[in-house]
Amino acid sequence: MGKSRGICLLLTLGLLMPLTSCWDRMEIEERGFAVGSAIDLVEKLDNGEYKIMLTTQFVVPAGMSASTQSGGGNQEPFMNLSVSGESVFDISREMSKLASREAYYPHLKVIIISEEVVEEPDLFASIMDVFLRDHEMRRSVKLSISKGEAKEVLYIKPDNEDLPAMYIKSVMENSYKTGGSIEPIHIGEVQEYLLSNRSYVIPSVFVAGDNIKYEGVGVFQGKNNQMLEILNNDETKGLGFIIEKIKGGTIKVEVGGDLITIELADIKSNIKVEGKDKENLKISVKMELEGKIAETFGNKSVLDRNYFTKIEEAAAKKVEELAQQTIEKVQGELKVDVLGISDLLYQRHYDMWQTIEGDWDQGANYFSQSTINVSADVKIEKPGATDNINSNQNGDQ
Amino acid sequence: MKWFDYADEKISDKEIMIAVPSIVIGVGILSMPRELAGATTSSDGWISIVIGGTIFVFITWMVAKLAASFPNQQFLTYASSLVTKPVAVVLTFLLSVQGIILSAYVMRVIAEIAKEYLFDETPVEVIALTFLLVVVYAVSGSRAGLFRLNMMFFPIIVIIAVLVIVFSLGWFNTENLLPVFKTSFSGHLQGLQVSSLSYIGFGIVLFYTALVKQPAGAPRMAAIGMSMAVGLYLLFFIVCLGVFGNLSTANLIYPTIELAKEIEIPGGFFERFDSVFLTIWIMAIFNTTAMGLDVAVFALNSLFNVKKAKILFVLSPLVYFIGMFPKNFNEVVTLGAFVGYYSLIVTVIVTIVLLIISKIKGGKKNGKK
């Protein structure tokens, strides 16, 4: 009796062991919350490998604005650490040694990669690997390339935000909603791009004085994930119209010598592939836009139906021009399909796609041989809150 | 008086309905979209789920029909009356092995997943042991209690699954589902093969129907239960495809968990929804393991006239060692394939053989039925 009771006691004590569960205990104060990462190219090594530099932004809670009043002093709310090495994961572990805290990535918001990195063939894909493989990483982290050094971006701190990484994230979202920039992409999408052989675009940021600007997109070719060129603002707009990745934004048109700004509200684009001859495909892009008059510099009545139609026509022409310009650039010059036509062929013309898959925007490059027709239709819904604000409207005409 | 009702180890057919999806839904769905997307073109995998699902709903119905035609008789008893005692003993033994290896495999997989996503530092062995101890505790108690636990957990599991699906819709892109109907015949066959492994576990109906008070409704209920699992699989697969696209789905180790990781609920409070999802999904896996182990105990109990606790005392270390046997992830996958094929072959063959014999003999002996 006594013996079995002893065994029971021993077993019970043994069971206490798994209950402690202290292996993964981690005090929240000891975690270094990473909110942004930037990757720069240091040098290309002789053996074909690359030396890269990872800059990670950690939150320093003591420096957040709420606590500065209670004696936080002049401490910055963030700390940027840069370490160079050959693999991102090694670097981030190395960083933990410097940071005195263990880097904790699930709250990462943005990744900035410098253009130097993505201009090297295949390097982009190797760098993205760790961000997609590691279980700590979330697939909704936003990604952008930077003109110039990527780490510089993480040092831009405006007065109204505490953390540069949060600032960058807000700028991206804001520019997309109202500024006519392209929709920010997250690394989950990047995995789709990397796995498929198709070409794609990734938005870019750059430092402009004390602020950052979220403008332009880098064009990547699918076969080796190498960036070819960063499109300028107008070309990006044109691209955004074609692939429906723009929301809002403005276009300026001139009607009868007056400058009129139209704020776009809704953009729809309908791409169709016609013809069966793969060496000369006919592609039609029909864009339908809705907008309202945001600003007029003249003094004609916007309630005049004829004038209204003229504005609509001028706006449509402007959109067509923008789109045409982009197409000339990516089809004629860069010869890579970032217009989403390969997706369309895969989705709607699967059988034809099977025969041209390998030669679409590489090899024989059927993409550059195809004809793309652009047409746009702009509908202006509202003239705004007022007809005219200039009193001498009759005298001028 | 009331509690005697609970203690009489009898269940209703509704509990069978919940028990079937409880054991079937487990670790399979976490990786199944990957295998299926890899085998088929674009989103065509749903066809495999629908065809495979229909087949398995039918098989489940057949299994329950067979068991229900011998009301309140244990598997060993009615199997002996059909195919002589020695053969019945062998069959019982084969089916109990299914329960053992199924729970061993599931225990290992959940330990691996929990380590990957939740406990970074804790050794797999410890996670698995802790998990198994809880399962053993559940199994050592009342069998009817286990069924009631299923009834309690299942709605929670369905709710979390629906939540993940609804919140993912924000990332859902219908373009990702195109083109449709482009998979070759062999692709569909392969899809059927990989998805069918996610349906194993319905063999429990062979044993548990004996506990049902009025087994006449059991076949229908078991089939409905299986349909729930099929429906959930279908939803998860389509949402994974719509969110990730075919290529990404085919390359994510656990697409369903990544789905929970991808979603972001505004407000920041649930920024890491994946940990909530995993924690609740462990309940689903707990059900699977507990039912698997319990059916093994139940089967062996009918063979050896010893106490349930003693059987469990021998089985638990066995389950633990089988589960810990694979050395790395690839070996775990191999074990999974073995468990899947073993269970499928054993359950389907046993059912079909017994059904045919009962039909032949049924005309003569079971005249009353």
Automatic annotation (TrEMBL), chain A:
**What organism is this sequence from?**
Virgibacillus tibetensis
**Localisation per UniProt entry:** Membrane
Protein name, as recorded: Ger(X)C family spore germination protein
Q: Which residues form the Spore germination GerAC-like C-terminal domain?
A: 215-384
Query: Which Pfam families has this protein been placed in?
Result: Spore_GerAC, Spore_GerAC_N
What residues does the Spore germination protein N-terminal domain cover?
A: 24-205
Q: Which InterPro entries match?
A: GerAC_N, Spore_GerAC-like, Spore_GerAC-like_C, Spore_GerAC_C_sf
Is Magnesium found in the keyword set? Answer: no
Q: Which family does it belong to?
A: Belongs to the GerABKC lipoprotein family.
Bilayer topology reads: Lipid-anchor
Keyword annotations for this protein?
A: Germination, Lipoprotein, Membrane, Palmitate, Signal
UniProtKB/TrEMBL annotation, chain B:
Query: What subcellular locations does the record give?
Result: Membrane
Transmembrane annotation, as ranges = 16-33, 45-67, 87-106, 126-146, 153-172, 192-211, 223-244, 276-299, 311-329, 335-357
Question: Which UniProt keyword terms apply here?
Answer: Germination, Membrane, Transmembrane, Transmembrane helix, Transport
Main localization is membrane
Q: Does the keyword Signal apply?
A: no
User: Which Pfam families does the entry mention?
Assistant: Spore_permease (PF03845)
Its membrane topology, per UniProt? Multi-pass membrane protein
Q: Does the keyword Transmembrane helix apply?
A: yes
UniProt cross-references to PANTHER family, sorted A to Z: SPORE GERMINATION PROTEIN A2
Q: Per the similarity annotation, which family is this? A: Belongs to the amino acid-polyamine-organocation (APC) superfamily. Spore germination protein (SGP) (TC 2.A.3.9) family.
Protein name per its UniProtKB record: Endospore germination permease
